[in-house]
Sequence to fold (52 residues):
Amino acid sequence: MNSSGTDGQTAISFPAPVRVTSMPLYLINATMSVVFFALMAMISEILMKREG
Fold:
């Protein structure tokens, strides 16, 4: 089992400025997930309004 590949990708997937900030990684992940769910909720609401 070699998990170095996935670890390297998660580190590289973030832009350099984001990794340099003082925010811990779990805070960044939580913020990203919250923003993602908020966007999905907004998109679903817009689609429902357009259909209705």
